[in-house]
Amino acid sequence: MNFRLSHIHLKVNGTRRAVKLLRDAGFTIEFGHKGLISPNAFIYFNDHAFIEIYMMKGPAKLSPVFMDKKYGRQMGDRFRLWGDAPEGFTDFAFEPCDRNEAKIKNMESVRKKLLKEGFDLSRNMISSRRNVRNETVGFGFCPLYPPELPFLVTAYSVEQIPKHIEHRNGIDSIYQMQVTCSDKDYSAMERLVGNDSKVKLIHGRHTEISKVIFLSKKADFKPPRLQGLFGMNVGFITENQLKERKA
Question: What span, in angstroms and rounded, lies between the C-alpha atoms of 70 and 90?
Answer without folding.
Answer: 24
